[in-house]
TrEMBL record:
Protein name (database record): DNA-binding response regulator
Species the sequence originates in: Croceivirga radicis
GO molecular-function term, one example from the UniProt record: phosphorelay response regulator activity
Keyword Phosphoprotein assigned: yes
InterPro entries xref list: CheY-like_superfamily (IPR011006), LytR-like (IPR046947), LytTR_DNA-bd_dom (IPR007492), Sig_transdc_resp-reg_receiver (IPR001789)
Entry keyword set: Phosphoprotein
Tagged with keyword Hydrolase: no
Domain Response regulatory: 6-119
Amino acid sequence: MQKKVKIVIVEDEPISTAYLKKLIRETEIEHEIVAELDSVSDSVLFFGSDTEYDIIFMDIHLGDGTCFEILNTIKISKPIIFCTTFDTYAIEAFNYNSIDYILKPAKLNDIEDALSKYYSIKKVEEESYAHRMGKMMDTIAPKSYKKRFLIRTENKLNLVDVHNICCIYSEDGHTHLVDKSGKEYVIDFTLEKLEELLNPEFFFRINRKLTLNIDEIKSVEDYPNNRLIVELEHPVDLELVVSRNRVKDFKNWLKGIL
């Protein structure tokens, strides 16, 4: 459900104001006309106040001047839809916060198209805001990662702390966890899902089939085709090759650059 749009109309002709309000009603959007202004002086006073609004329908020629006198006096950050008889001001209008320029007499589809642009812009702004808030919340409340695995083997439950993991690999459609003692367990997670669950400070997926614990890395050597090969503190019977497209990220990870 869309939030009610708060609209300001800047128009000095009562007939034009009434007609515009009629068209806005016909769009059937939830809206409220919070102000009808018919002069430069009244508009400057209104836009200089703290009244909340979302969008402006603005004529260019008013009784005591042009709308550009308003816009050059008061900084307006809200979207503006210009509605005017004149087409000679279009370029100048778009120097301001204009999202559309409608020539009178306006038609219903003109108003619908203009409001559609407004909603598109608003959606992008809201998504951007949500993204920024998400990043801020990640900083305030850092993401928590999996600390241990509870793994069933036959009639036994095994608790494996993530710091006791040597590596995790995928083979024949199954994911295998190898602990530092060399024990292997089949777990119900894909390597893709584990990239989300395990702390990236300690775990890195070196290729499509292998994820390593940084505490287990003993040495790293060059390998053919611009790849790297890793030796672990607790050797495993696997070829621990860092794929070429992950070498740069792997080196950054080793340096502590996430």
